[in-house]
Specification:
CATH class: Alpha Beta
Distance between the termini: 53 Å
Shape: globular
Number of helices: 5
Strand order of the largest sheet: 5-4-3-6-7-8-9
Oligomer: single chain
Helix content: 10-25%
CATH superfamily: Vaccinia Virus protein VP39
Radius of gyration: 16 Å
Strand content: 25-35%
CATH architecture: 3-Layer(aba) Sandwich
Number of domains: 1
Number of strands: 9
Length: 219
């Protein structure tokens, strides 16, 4: 199967059925070369409906439909300063960059951060700043805020309340929370009076490290 056919099938069979229908989002998914962000020995999986591992520590390129839905639900307009936590290979950073003023992306694994930066620069993506550090600590990104949108490219056990002060007054935070077998995408808009997370859809995702997990049940 050619790469063009695989890309077409990815969009039509995986992404559209997940209610990713905005034309500008679909155009970006068609333009950003996903295979360039996949390890060479796994590029046959670039357009498959699966997470693609990046290392032995659990880092992965999220499945196409999950990447697409997170990107879609940020509702970016092009003017935002965006914080991404969990750079991975840089694929989601590249998607977001086409619809944001600036992207600050934090990756705790130095090797992955350097590789992502190299790939992004090689593709001419100039408005992404990759930082090696702990994204669970608000101090890591504080100097680059406030942020109009924050997205976590991976799952956490509990909603990361500590990141909310990094948002601008009109900002929102989108992440996947919970434990298997069911995790939920949650969003908070800081301007809302109660600022409580709202569940959007269910989907499991690889864990981000150093975030608080759900306490184990004790008898």
């Amino acid at each position: 199967m050619s790469q063009n056919v695989a890309l077409f099938n990815m969009i039509e069979q995986q992404i559209r059925p997940w209610n990713v229908l905005r034309s500008e989002v679909l155009e970006t998914l068609a333009c950003v070369p996903r295979a360039s962000f996949i390890p060479p020995h796994l590029r046959a999986l670039a357009y498959s409906d699966t997470d693609v591992p990046l290392n032995e520590n659990g880092a992965a390129v999220l499945s196409p439909k999950l990447e697409a839905r997170l990107f879609h639900d940020l509702q970016l307009t092009g003017s935002e300063n965006v914080l991404e936590i969990g750079t991975g290979s840089g694929y989601s950073s590249a998607l977001i960059a086409r619809h944001a003023r600036q992207v600050v992306s934090i990756e705790i694994d130095e090797e992955l951060a350097k590789a992502a930066e190299t790939t992004l620069k090689g593709l001419g993506v100039e408005n992404v700043k990759v930082i090696t550090g702990d994204g669970s600590n608000p101090a890591t990104a504080q100097a680059y805020g406030p942020f109009d949108a924050i997205v976590l490219s991976g799952s956490v056990g509990e909603f990361p309340e500590q990141l909310l002060p990094l948002l601008s007054e009109q900002g929102r935070l989108l992440c996947i929370c919970g434990t298997e077998p069911i995790m939920s995408a949650m969003i908070v808009y800081r301007a809302q009076a109660d600022a409580k997370p709202k569940a959007l859809w269910d989907m499991n995702a690889p864990r981000l490290v150093n975030f608080a997990d759900v306490p184990a049940f004790q008898f």
